[in-house]
Specification:
This protein has an eight-stranded mixed sheet, with helices on both faces. 37% of the residues lie in helices and 16% in strands. The chain is an alpha/beta fold.
């Protein structure tokens, strides 16, 4: 895998797949190995995907300073990647927790962002809180699924801050548009966390300054696509719509029948939505 040096000397890796104009991709988790993104449902047939392994994940080195896992400090790694790729401006995609990093990068380096794609975004960076009631309302769209009673009871425990270990795994079906073998295998891959310290530090105190970030985003010239999954309890459409309202040039799309990983639920629709936005 190709590598480059972060400003602090940490050696970072990235994976290249596909052809076409480059699209830099940031994984969620937080701090998961980027392999769970695969080729984003075949998006690599239209764009060259630059999949960054964030420090301490995948093939990237573990930093000496573990506080550098904090989201705001990771922005420097993304900028170092842009410079390494010798690109004046980048198209940037973030998924889930990775959208916080993409958002902070856009706020700090607006001149280097051509277009921004936020897939089933988390919105800690701008101070949007997803309420338990919004999550439960979204979950009730699945009331006819055979697994719903057990999963919903677990989600009630999670949103009520009384969840046990079994409850967290019991809500997995809510993250997918179809709870089939493919979804189960993908969820098992995503749930693995080889670097829990990185995950804990990502949103540590000081990582986010929502008011300052909102102010910076209010003048961002780049177009932004925010894509929500209809069934996603992690990033419910009403919360993503609120996030979309913070950008001066935002497109908000809800993918029908999709969960937190919309490229798994309807790859053709997901790819068509992103390519139409990116080529416009």
């Amino acid at each position: 895998m190709p590598t480059f040096s972060a400003p602090d000397g940490t050696l970072l890796s990235y994976r290249i797949t596909g052809d076409g104009d480059p699209l830099v991709c940031l994984a969620g988790g937080p701090m998961k190995d980027s392999r769970y993104l695969d080729d984003l449902g075949g998006l690599s047939r239209h764009r060259q995907l630059i999949m960054l392994d964030l420090r301490g994940t995948g093939q990237s080195a573990t930093p000496e300073d573990v506080s550098s896992y904090r989201c705001d400090r990771l922005v420097d790694d993304v900028e170092a990647l842009r410079e390494h790729l010798n690109l004046d401006r980048i198209d940037l995609l973030g998924h889930s927790a990775g959208t916080n990093l993409a958002t902070l990068y856009a706020a700090r380096f607006p001149e280097h962002v051509r277009k921004l794609v936020l897939v089933t975004p988390s919105a800690f960076a701008v101070g949007i809180t997803v309420t338990g009631e919004i999550r439960l309302d979204t979950a009730r769209l699945r009331k006819d699924e055979p697994w719903f009673p057990t999963a919903y009871a677990a989600l009630e425990a999670v949103t009520g801050n009384r969840a046990g270990d079994d409850d967290w795994s019991a809500i997995d079906p809510f993250f997918h548009g179809r709870w089939d073998t493919t979804a189960r295998e993908h969820q098992a891959t995503f749930s693995a966390q080889p670097n829990p310290e990185a995950a804990r530090t990502f949103a540590a105190e000081g990582a986010f300054t929502p008011e300052a970030t909102r102010t910076a985003l209010a003048t961002l010239p780049a177009p932004v696509l925010l894509l929500a999954g209809e069934f996603d309890v992690n990033s419910p459409p009403p919360s993503v719509a609120e996030f979309a309202g913070l950008w001066p040039d935002a497109s908000f799309v809800v993918q029908p029948g999709a969960g937190h990983y919309p490229w798994l639920d309807d790859a053709d629709l997901f790819v068509a939505t992103l390519t139409a936005f990116l080529r416009s």
